[in-house]
Amino acid sequence: MTELKNDRFLRALLNEPVDRTPIWMMRQAGRYLPEYRASRADAGSFMDLCMNADFACEVTLQPLDRYPGLDAAILFSDILTIPDAMGLGLYFETGEGPKFKKVVETEADVDALPIVDMDRGDLSYVTKAVSTIRRELNGRVPLIGFSGSPWTLATYMVEGGSSKDFRKVKAMMYNQPEVLHQLLDKLAQSVVGYLNAQIDAGAQAVQIFDTWGGALSGRCYQEFSLKYMQKIVAGLKRENEGRKVPVILFTKGGGQWLESMADTGCDALGLDWTTDITNARQRVGDRVALQGNLDPCILYADPKIIREEVKMVLDGYGNGSGHVFNLGHGIHQWVDPDHAKAFIEAVVELSPQYHK
């Protein structure tokens, strides 16, 4: 593989010295960019965009071409590829988000689900996209692979799509916990194989998105979400191409569980904007790196305000390595691309003083 020209992101995840705080954005390839919207129109649909390696590569590289300050690329895909590969039939309704043709409701439904087998060729379009992107990056920046967490994937599979109250999956959790555990175990096994295949194809770091972990009580988070992310971390390849492959855990709304998350053996924790980064660093020390955590809505503000907010996050983390700057969740589709530029440039310009 081509030598990596910028490994600032990987070094920060491992708490190694860097010259400035690295930055990338969740959903950095997305609808806020006019070039992305044009590519999606050319592809025909969101899933066509994901399943065509050339299109997936094209949109992955678009933010890097627009914003040279970015320190990582993230595979363009969707967290729901695994349930789709299990036969649930993922599709997208305009304005309504993801939906499934089949819904998991009973123990028999769970029994019928296959474990995703990457050796069999399941989700080969994803690994093809990873290898295509790595080739086209040509060592420019590292490539991040990712998956949804078992709990988050299960919420979509049981609810049939997005949910505000999670009434179906929580009813299963309380009434038939053994059925939900069976589903989560199948998903954890699938995620391990999926992420390891991404690593083999060229992903240099991986992130597990636990988008809905924050909807759980503390006890249920430990039992139904963190337990399965721990299994995934334990099953992942942690070295490839002669260097470590860092693992990032991100639970939206999970700031109260940082110590338990750090105990999984991951390398970094993603923070949403509701968690104070100073407090987070005090709690986990140098056990793990921290990623985050600007409120995505700040990008609607004047660039001068964005710059001030960036400085507050940098001040909050303080001096030294172990910080990857990011938004506290994905960038919103209505953000002005010039405001994203102001955000990235502020991090590039202001952060070196914290690394002297």
Describe what this molecule looks like in 3D.
- The model has no long low-confidence stretch (mean pLDDT 96).
- The chain is globular, with a radius of gyration of 19 Å.
- It has a single domain (8-355), classed as TIM Barrel (Alpha-Beta Barrel), CATH 3.20.20.
- α12 links the parallel β8 (247-251) and β9 (268-270).
- The protein has helices at 8-13, 34-43, 46-51, 53-66, 81-88, 107-112, 124-137, 150-159, 167-175, 177-201, 218-235, 258-262, 277-284, 303-317, 337-350; strands spanning 73-74, 90-93, 97-100, 143-148, 205-210, 239-240, 243-244, 247-251, 268-270, 289-294, 323-327.
- The protein has a 7-stranded parallel beta sheet.
- It has 15 helices and 11 strands.
- With 356 residues, it is an alpha/beta fold.
- Helix content is 47%, strand content 13%.
Structural class: alpha/beta
CATH fold-level name = TIM Barrel
Q: What profile does the largest beta sheet have?
A: 7 strands, parallel
Lateral arrangement of strands in the main beta sheet:
1-4-5-8-9-10-11
Query: How much of the polypeptide forms β-strand, as a percent range?
Result: 5-15%
Q: Architecture in CATH?
A: Alpha-Beta Barrel
Total helix count?
15
Q: How far is the first residue's CA from the last residue's CA?
A: 32 Å
SSE arrangement, N to C: HHHHEHEEHHEHHHEHEEEHEHEHEH
Tally of structural domains: 1
